[in-house]
Amino acid sequence: MSSGELAVEQRYLTELYRRVDALRAEAAEGEGEFWRGELARLESVEDGLCFGRLDLTDGRRVYIGRIGLFDGDEPLLLDWRAPAARPFYTATAVDAQGVRRRRRITTRGRTVVALDDELLDTPAGDDELVGEAALLSALTADRTGRMREIVTTLQAEQDRIVRDEHLGVLVVQGGPGTGKTAVALHRLAYLLYTRPHLRSRGVLVIGPSRVFLDYIGQVLPGLGEHTVVTATLPDLWRGGVERVEVNVEKGRAEMAERVAAAVWARIQEETVEFEFEQQVVRLEPATWKRVVATAKGLPYRQARLVFERGVVVLLARELGDRMESVVLTEAGEAIDGGDADGSLSAADLRALAAAGVVVDPDEPQGPRHVLDDTDRAGLRAALLADAGVREVLDRVWPPLTAEQVVAGLVGTTAWSTADVPLLDEAAAVLGEGVPTFGHVVVDEAQELSEMDWRMLVRRCPARSMTIVGDLAQTGSAAGASGSAAGASGSAAGASGSAAGATGWAAGATGWAEVLRPHVADRWRLAQLTVNYRTPAEIMAATEELFAAHHPGLRPPRSVRSTGEQPWRLGTTAAELADVVARLVAAHQEGRWPVCAPPAHQEEGPAVIAQPGHHAGNLAVIAPPVHRERLAEVLPVAGPPELTEPVVLLTPGEAKGLEFDAVLIVDPAAILAAGPLGHNDLYVAMTRATRRLGVVHPGPCPAVLAGLAASPGGGNAFPP
Questions:
Q1: Which of 173-177, 355-359, 511-515 has the lowest mean pLDDT?
Q2: Which terminus of the chain is more solvent-facing, meaning fewer CB atoms within 10 Å of its CB: N or C?
Q3: Each residue's pLDDT tens digit, 670-679
């Protein structure tokens, strides 16, 4: 690109930043939440403010960026979410959409450093990658331990999902490397742009772990959105819990009925006696049950309020009737009980005459009301405030907490991740409120149990959700056995399920089964089929593993190759940790075992990349049984920190993440960790953007036998 063109774009970029600086100064002088938010939004787009330009066939020129900027009514920079910006992501030579040239602008800070032009005037296939050079540059760049936003390289398949206007639940399903997480986050940013009311209702992003949430934490701020709540499922319960527990039974939907039954079983339906001011009122079981029945149907605590008011009305009526039927002297002593109908008897009249009370014999001698409405209301209030009455009420309809209910059900108070949805369910039955949101994004949703879904749906009354997952990656941590169905980046059909996949926690068999109880048919499946992350060589190494457990399904199609073959290295159990440590040290020095390509090469991928020359970051993925020993010999300390050059993870912790290189330790132990161990191994193998190695103590699992053996065995370290 000529220096003249760079200068043109530099001048325009400088003007854009001048406008941003003026808006920042204005926001800094303002007060209140709005101006603080506006200032944060403007500061979050400092890097990569403008990244594209469209030259249209009608002669207009449109610049595309992270936010919209205007000079009066004149647009200086078009927000990437605006309808007019869409051709930047979807225009091709076959369907130019009024675009003559698409220019991608690469900046560093406030400086333009590179331009990449595409002239849309040559025939090409419908599935052409848009902005191939920019896309390839992003895919082959070193990982930083933080997810990058893909706003500059969104492909047409991804853009369709980002801008999907479905008002209910949208399920984004895709295999490894399809960008489903980034797509979901970009869709959230798009929804906040097109549906501003969501900002006041709040949006929630649920991730599988804190490590994962840290990994994606920069994406939304980089898109100008910084008011989103992020959490793991355990975080939703009063600050979260730490202890991890895999328990299939606790995740099944029938646990909701058991929790509700445990709550309502605390109510006693028996003969009850109340004592109030030296008078005893007895309520028989039949009367008692009628009062309880009028209260049920509401949450427990609200029902109790209805119940206690009903009881107090009965008590006040009985006590009031007693007071009305008694004639008192001036000294306040009862003279006679009166007749059954409340009228004064002959004995009453004689007693009153003896006391000097003259009764007109011509007046009707019907019931005499000593208490008016105000008196009866005061009596009811006194009953409600009476300690003795409240003690009886607490005994027969006890005040409860969610912790008490679940402890009685599962026999523990040392809460684990598996108890969180039970605690939340109990809180809902009791009538405790929870924060709600206008839209919820759920990542790695294939891991959720039926009880997890109940907990999430409660937090989204509008049932507006973006669900992200791949049923073929459901891990052993989900704890399920038996058959389930789902596609990994394949045409699985409208229900999102197909025979042959394995493992939903609590017995769910696909997206339809888990969603329809909550949203009926207000959900839709969108699929991503192109793998942008994982090289073709690594995906080829997973073919046997994938086909063995997901017959008939197609993994996502890789669009690039690195030319580097994944390898396996055999060792002994005793030497395993030391061999891994030596491999990690070699990687950090820029050395990595190299193997010849297998004899059976598939047809070449769509985009070819050359091997990188930098070591990049490395993930050592091992089953928990090896964590302690590996942590002793590897340069890692404390909880996983993805910005470090080496990180030690379990397959479950690695889910949703990506690294330049991955070293898998003891694949046989990963396979044996649970009924879905094969999915855990598949996840581990598809985290790498460049290089993959496998170290196995003892024989190599049959599904990995096709991997090239690293030459030299345990001494396979290139000079």
A1: 355-359
A2: C
A3: 999 888 889 8
